[in-house]
């Protein structure tokens, strides 16, 4: 089906601003409950960014290694690295960048010399006894034992020995229109509504391979395999656990939540657990916007895409006894994939907002720091600093201690300050006279030592109504912070700001968000000035994304724009063992209708800023959860929402089965984890 410039002909949904170019209104409706359709939820008048001369504190550097034993490169400022900084050695993932692939093409495209195959697809068996996938005979029980829909974050925790491990994957949301043929039978629709609960959440799947660098295979029924659905128990931790704000009729103790929602990006901790961000959780509730908090988080009373509110009291915000159910979602979830008997947790100490994900590093003093984005236009960047230090021992006692690190600590929100005159930030993307969009910033405490740091709010209120707390302290309104990840060796933090079509309408441009109607997004590089546990930082914009041959101004860390791959809407970020940044995208430049991709960006040496496209995902899909293993010559990505704009009868994509027949295949798009390796 063809989508016109202004309207999806099938659903007659208006193309919303951030979707111009490629992203579909179907994605917006199903994934984000049309969060971009109206003005920003953030109507606060908190201090917006002041463009002042750079403050006096030094940019002394302070870069902690992320993982225990990591090599620390002593980079001391945000100045452009020179050739004196060692450039990465010969790569184990050599490639010639691919050309952007037209948005009508339903192919998974890799560079010459590489091959690809799905590792696991929607519906493949996970738990023992799971039936072979049959798209026309799905049931809630079958789906609860099979791999879920729309995988986003992925990682493989490799066991000692290197030939076995566990794959952990998020399942963010479902697309009823391409999972099932149309139906108006109420009993059938109710049955499907139960399948949607089973298709979301997370999967843990054991994997094996014959040798390092060889492709992985899944182990259906593996000892550590698990499925977490919208009915699986999660334990609340931290200061808001057990508080009145999270108690419901079904859980008067306020300590056990059923399910996880909107699991988007994530991170793997140094102690081997996986963090997952509960992002667009509001969209699963029908709740009248009767309170400032409900309005600020985008709750509305209306039919949802899953229909749970019609039969499960938990999702009807008007149901007596369940008004607080919505306060039990919007957290960072931690799963221990190595312990199949463990109960996953939701950490209230890290705040409640539309968590994209969380990435943890270890500060110089051994405390752990989690960096987090709230992915909504005009929302904020956060970090959490633990109270306790990591235990670097290898025994079960150390692991038990580390599993509690994210339950106690301080939560901060970021305020950015530019160092150029406001008059030089004209909204076009033109660099100010000092040659950089850059400046300093401050982490403002929302909680301190287990207490509220926000006058007039209790600690429980701060952690449940975190957006309202951050509004009060003058945080900087950002262009949708997606993945935020510290570099494993330099400690610099990379922040993907995916786009903000209403920049300049709901909030003015500033030096950290310098483009009007920021259609293509940007990436910020942040250096902690007092160590990762500190409260001061320096920052600079690394990339102003877009099509360098288009009309919009772009910037690639000073690298010649004519020599880069066009890139738009940066979403997930990852690093390889050679120190390069990798970016997966959720949208293409408006000037060229192309499929989403995965891009490599060197951060040091003469190639700093040289964006190179590695792969392209099929029609309508988004590239997620990249895993880059230079040492194995392998890349893995999650292909989310392929064929999103099609229908069951007329699929827009047949990825990844592409017409194969036989048990377990389908003539339909199937979100899948794909591995790419050197042929
Ligand atoms: Fe689920 Fe912010 O992307
Ligand atoms: Ca500047
Ligand atoms: Ca994302």
From TrEMBL:
UniProt name for this protein: Phosphatase
Species annotation: Microcella alkaliphila
Domain of life: Bacteria
InterPro entries with a match to the protein in the record: PhoX, TAT_signal
SUPFAM superfamilies according to UniProt: Calcium-dependent phosphotriesterase
């Amino acid at each position: 089906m063809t989508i016109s410039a202004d309207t999806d002909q099938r659903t007659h949904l208006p193309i919303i601003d951030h979707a111009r170019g490629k992203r579909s209104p179907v994605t917006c409706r199903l994934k984000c409950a049309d969060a971009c359709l109206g003005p920003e939820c953030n109507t606060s008048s908190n201090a917006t960014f002041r463009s002042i001369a750079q403050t006096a504190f030094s940019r002394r550097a302070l870069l902690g290694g992320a993982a225990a034993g990591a090599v620390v490169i002593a980079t001391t400022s945000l100045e452009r690295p020179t050739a004196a900084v060692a450039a990465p050695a010969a790569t184990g993932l050599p490639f010639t960048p691919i050309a952007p692939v037209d948005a009508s093409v339903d192919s998974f495209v890799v560079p010459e010399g590489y091959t690809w195959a799905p590792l696991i697809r929607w519906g493949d068996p996970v738990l023992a006894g799971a039936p072979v996938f049959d798209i026309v005979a799905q049931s809630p029980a079958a789906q609860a034992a099979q791999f879920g829909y729309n995988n986003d974050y992925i990682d493989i925790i490799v066991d000692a020995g290197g030939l076995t491990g566990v794959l952990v994957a998020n399942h963010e949301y479902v697309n009823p229109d391409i999972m099932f043929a149309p139906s108006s039978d109420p009993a059938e629709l109710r049955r499907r509504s139960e399948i949607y609960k089973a298709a979301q959440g997370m999967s843990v799947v054991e994997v094996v391979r014959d040798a390092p660098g060889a492709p992985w295979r899944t182990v259906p029924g593996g000892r550590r395999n698990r499925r977490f659905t919208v009915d699986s128990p999660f334990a609340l931790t931290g200061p808001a656990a057990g508080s009145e704000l999270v108690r419901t009729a079904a859980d008067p103790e306020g300590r056990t939540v059923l399910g996880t929602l909107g699991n988007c990006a994530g991170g793997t901790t140094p102690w081997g657990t996986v963090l997952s961000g509960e992002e667009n959780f509001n969209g699963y509730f029908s709740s009248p916007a009767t309170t400032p908090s409900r309005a600020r988080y985008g709750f509305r009373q209306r039919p949802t895409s899953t229909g749970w509110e019609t039969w499960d009291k938990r999702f009807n915000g008007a149901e007596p006894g369940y008004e607080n159910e919505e306060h039990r979602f919007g957290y960072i979830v931690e799963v221990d994939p190595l312990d199949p008997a463990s109960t996953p947790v939701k950490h209230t100490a890290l705040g409640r907002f539309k968590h994209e994900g969380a990435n943890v590093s270890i500060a110089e003093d051994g405390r752990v720091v989690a960096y987090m984005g709230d992915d909504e236009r005009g929302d904020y960047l956060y970090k959490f600093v633990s109270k306790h230090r990591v235990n670097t021992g290898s025994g079960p006692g150390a692991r038990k201690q580390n599993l509690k690190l994210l339950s106690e600590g301080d939560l901060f929100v970021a305020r950015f300050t530019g160092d150029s005159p406001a008059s030089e930030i004209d909204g076009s993307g033109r660099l100010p006279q000092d040659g950089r969009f850059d400046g300093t910033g401050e982490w403002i405490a929302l909680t301190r030592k287990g207490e509220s740091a926000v006058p007039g709010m209790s600690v429980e209120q701060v952690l449940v109504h975190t957006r309202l707390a951050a509004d009060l302290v003058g945080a900087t309104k950002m262009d949708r912070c997606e993945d935020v990840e510290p570099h494993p060796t330099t400690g610099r933090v990379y922040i993907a700001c995916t786009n903000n079509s209403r920049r300049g309408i709901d909030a003015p441009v500033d030096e950290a968000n310098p483009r009007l109607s920021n259609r293509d997004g940007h990436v910020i590089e942040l250096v902690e000035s007092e160590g990762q546990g500190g409260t001061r930082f320096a920052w600079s914009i690394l990339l102003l994304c877009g099509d360098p041959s288009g009309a919009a101004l772009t910037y690639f860390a000073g690298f010649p724009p004519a020599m880069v791959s066009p890139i738009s809407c940066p979403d997930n970020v990852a690093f390889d063992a050679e120190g390069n940044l990798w970016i997966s995208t959720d949208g293409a430049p408006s000037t060229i209708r192309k499929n989403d991709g995965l891009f490599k960006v060197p951060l040091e040496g003469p190639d700093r800023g040289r964006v190179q496209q590695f792969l392209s995902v099929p029609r309508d899909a988004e590239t997620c959860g990249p895993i880059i293993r230079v040492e194995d010559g392998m890349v893995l990505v999650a292909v989310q929402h392929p064929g999103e704009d099609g229908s069951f009868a007329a699929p827009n994509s047949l990825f990844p089965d592409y017409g194969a027949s036989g048990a377990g295949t389908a003539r339909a798009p199937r979100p899948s984890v794909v591995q790419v390796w050197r042929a």
